[in-house]
Amino acid sequence: MSEVAAQKKSPYDRSLVEGPIGPAVWKLAWPTMLQNVIAGLQGLIDHVLVGNLLGYAANAAIGVSWQIFLVVIVFMASLFTGQAVLVARYVGAGDVERVNRTVQQAILTALAMYLVLAPFGYFAAPMLLDFANTSPEVRDLALPFLRVNFTFSIGLLMFFMLTSALRAAGDARTPMRLGIAMTILNVVLNIILIRGLGPIPALGTMGSALGTMIASGTVSAFALYRLLKGRLVIKLSRHMDWRPDWTIIRSLFRFGLPTGVQGIAMNIAGVMLLRFIGSLEQSAAAQGAYAIGYTELFSLITWTSVGLTGAAATIAGQNLGAGHPERVVQGVHTASKIGLWVAAGVGFTFVAFPGALLWLFGATDPAVTTIGRQLLQYLALSGFFITVALTYTGGLQGTGDTRSPLFITLASQVAVPIGMCTAIQATRQLQPGDIWLAIVLGHFTRCVLTVARFRQGKWRNMAVAH
């Protein structure tokens, strides 16, 4: 059979490795960007509800809890970067059997990891909150939120795993639809559970966590059903051999483990920043401002950039698998340009309308408003650096170079901001502006180092086979 005939019979979208690169990147990027913006809006709604009903201490509780939860969940979800590397490369090479087998083994890995995560998170939650230096009022609201997230995290794990696999295979629209459905269900459940409705009592922060976990579990079960019925680009069957394939599982960890450690490092750095924030004179107000400004509003930049990271990774992996390294370079450049436009738009709103943005969350306390306005000014600049860093990170990870982003993260997101705050605290009283500047310098460093590493071109020789 000729190569042309084989491509015509391919179940995958060959336009990603052939034809104009701009439309190929946009085809992958816009569904994920839209999904992430909508998911970010869901988080905003959560904070708006709890902030107006329970006060800024509840905003701080959710922000601190998510930062802690992400230390673990991002590590586990990042292991599916290994899955994405393998799937994209096999799709580019047209190897259907290896694509399906890789996803099957990733599902087994996700289930096994959950059995470890749930009990660990439940019992370690109080200690983790103490480590984050939370005030008593914040801790009381954060503990039930954190325990619910850990206990019922299987739905979120499966959602990350399945949507990552589909995007790596070139299908970005199905994850978008699943993500939008999950967000809508989440919002409805949170409105009911946070404030109560009829016989359902007001559950506050715990209601927010329950809404997220019920929504993610429901949507993940539906996606898995469609996968087993053969209705998606990736097809699994109950009749497949479901025993662990240790060769594939080792490959998942080989490429995914550095990204998982990178995720842990970034989020540990975030928890350590929360410790510095907790040491400020107005700690509760500063943690509330940080939760609103950085965790929620800044996500309008980071989550769209994460969508571009996925697009760059898929383009890079598939084109390297198809033997087109120059399209890898073109694709990453195109994704970064899109990210810069997004960062410019969101950054403008941070500078022009900070008071209105904070008011949406019920942040009317003068201390929270003052600190929040200052933070948003810093984040308006930081957005340009982080979006470029993330898109180029996607290019590196998509080709299989997952170690370089790890070392870059350790230098830029841990050593720079934590080292700076530690040095300042040793010489004088730490101020909110010191922490915000440390965040910006960390993002700047990550941007410079990631672009430089990508331009070295060592990813061209990355192989997925042992």
Question: In terms of topology, how is this protein built?
Answer:
Blueprint: H1 3-8, H2 21-54, H3 56-78, H4 80-93, H5 96-131, H6 136-151, H7 154-168, H8 173-195, H9 204-228, H10 246-278, H11 283-297, H12 299-321, H13 325-352, H14 354-360, H15 366-399, H16 403-427, H17 432-456
Helix pairs in contact: 2-3, 2-8, 2-12, 2-13, 3-5, 3-6, 3-10, 3-11, 4-5, 4-7, 4-10, 4-12, 5-6, 5-7, 5-10, 6-9, 7-8, 7-9, 8-9, 10-16, 11-15, 12-13, 12-15, 13-15, 14-15, 15-17, 16-17
Query: What global shape is seen?
Result: globular
Average pLDDT reading: 85
Distance between the termini: 28 Å
Query: How many DSSP E strands?
Result: 0
Give the ordered list of helices and strands.
HHHHHHHHHHHHHHHHH
The unreliable regions are 1-8
The largest sheet is: none
Q: Provide the domain count.
A: 1
Radius of gyration: 22 Å
Question: Which percent bin holds the helix content?
Answer: over 70%
- Global structural class: mainly alpha
Kindly estimate the percentage of residues that lie in beta strands according to DSSP.
under 5%
Number of contiguous helices: 17
